[in-house]
Amino acid sequence: MSLNKNNLTLYFLIFFNGLAFGQVQQERKNDSIVVEQLEPVLITATRTLRQLSSVPLPAQVISKKDIDRINAVRLSEVLNEQTGLVTVPDFGGGEGIQMQGLDSQYTLILIDGVPLVGRSAGTLDLSRISVGNIKQIEIVKGASSSLFGNEALGGVVNIITEDPKPGFKGNIRYRGGSLNAHDIATNINVKNEKVGYTLFVNRNSSEGYDLLEGDGFNTVEPFENYTINAKVSYQVSNDTKLTGSGRFYHQNQDNVASQDLAGKSEINEWNALIKADHEFNDRWNSYLELYGTQFKAEEFLNDPLGDTFSQNNFDQLFLRPEVRTTFKPNSEHNLIAGFGLTHETLRRTDFFETPIFNAPYIYVQYDGNFFEHLNIILGARYDSHNEYESQFSPKLALRYALTETLAVKGSVGYGFKAPDFRQLYFDFSNATIGYTVLGYNAVPDQLQELDNQGRLTENSSNNLDQIISQFNGELRPERSVALNLGFDFKPSSSIQLSINVFRNTISNLIDTRVIANQISGQNVFSYFNIDEAYTQGLEFNSSFNISDNLNISGGYQLLFARDKTAEDDFNNGEVTRQITNNGTVVGFTTLDLDDYFGLFNRSRHMANLKVFYNIPQWNLNTNIRGVYRSKFGLFDTNGNAYLDTFDEFVEANVIWDFAINKTLFKDYELGFGIDNVFNFRDVPSGPDDGIFISNIPGRIFYGTLNINI
Fold first, then answer.
1. Cα distances (angstroms) measured from residue 267 to each of 71, 209, 257, 303
2. How far apart are CA 545 and CA 495, in angstroms?
């Protein structure tokens, strides 16, 4: 699709929202009976149960009903259709989430309020999370370290799984389609007066896909994975409840690097949570959580003779006890406080030692309502650490109801992301190309070792002491100040509009830089704190219940994401681009600030449109959803280290998905759908083309069968 056509699609999405608003107003005039919609509730924003509409933070809830209607099976499919969110692929085909223009490494991913681990290169792969037993997904945008600490610099995604419900019920769900993809899952629920449990089992597989034929390997290799999730609740007394949950994930995938090098990769992950909830009286509640998780990944490559060419291991262990107390003196005020300790270890190939992180923390938050119209949230958290400086993370949020239908809300919060194990302890030399990457803490010893081996150039060797002296301190955590200001407008139960203006200012960014040169001609890289970057823009969301059976919703994000150092360099005339003639460089031209596009892999415009329609007399529901993304750049292609308007871009695109589901005999449901209806693909032109979208395989046909027990 051309850029012009996609711009027309963007204008259509915005226009259609306005048109729907007019239609809904007319519908309300002609219909005197208005069905009141149940208000969604969430806990992630404040760690207490709150109505979504009353929260003074940019937050949203994705319900189980919404997930089921689009026939999604993995978390990445659901999040990619939300305003301000976009899934971005990593090197192995996994997908992370970008929020308000911030990289996936800055978004904390939780399951039932506890964190997942396993970020081998900063990205936590969302495609490894099945949605078959999810009750709802809660999304909070903006720095949330005041409650959740590390990695919540950009926001939080909390996946809430189903709790045991009274009685016995279950279901079996199957989805099969293109790419020989199969997903089969079953849920079982049993609960009596005191004891309840749920069991979820899922198998997901695909033969993968290849966007570039003839290069010896697939874009995504064939895989199969299994998820087992169990939850048990025991009502000890009217005041005390115990809950235990566990999750196990296993994946096997082909690992192919070239026509001569092939092997396997394997992932094993477990999560275990024990929680005790005791209510002392109407005012005091306490919670004790004991949580542990381990993520293990192993991969190998063999040569044509079957001998091992390379083998890599990743083994991360995370343990966290936490105590939390809630004090509620009356219905208008709430105080929550907690403390805990995180303990992490990582055993990984190419680490110069086995690191251990210990981080005790404490937090407190006040949530109060004043004058019937004003809600204030004030909180802070203190994190200590054995490897980096302590962090204090405050947050303030306000919501004021101007009228019964219009409210203004704003928040300012501090977030941080600690240097990860890789940035501190990496000791990696590429066997094929020859470059070396050293973690910040590894530089003094390992760079000296490279010099002892005679691998450094004379210049680097002579300046060794000066280079090492730059690593005497600590690699500081990345910090962010997040500002959000918006309005919620709800003129009736069937119309909801919201707009939010945001800015995230990030300091102490961790970046890679060349620190020494090797006699082979290759470089030695390490990690440094650099200056500021920022993301800013606005988000608009709308939802219209035109009738009881027709809902139209849509959203739009405008984003500017830039590096402050880059802006200074462009302003000072320090950035140039090559002028070529038939492939030969014939000169250079200086660029100015107007030529600077921004950070890599960010689109200036994103939009979505969703239309859901029910036909009750046919027991049928159907929907169509569109997601638009304007052009973005993945790499610098003209050699000046920045993304400017003269670089190569992935062109704007829009993807439409369609689904239809019909219930038969009450307990059976058949579904059919097409993802990427118009078969958009961005295929590389050759092995050296890195400017393409690797996580969109093309048009996908599928069918589903759901059986309730």
1. 26, 20, 18, 22
2. 6
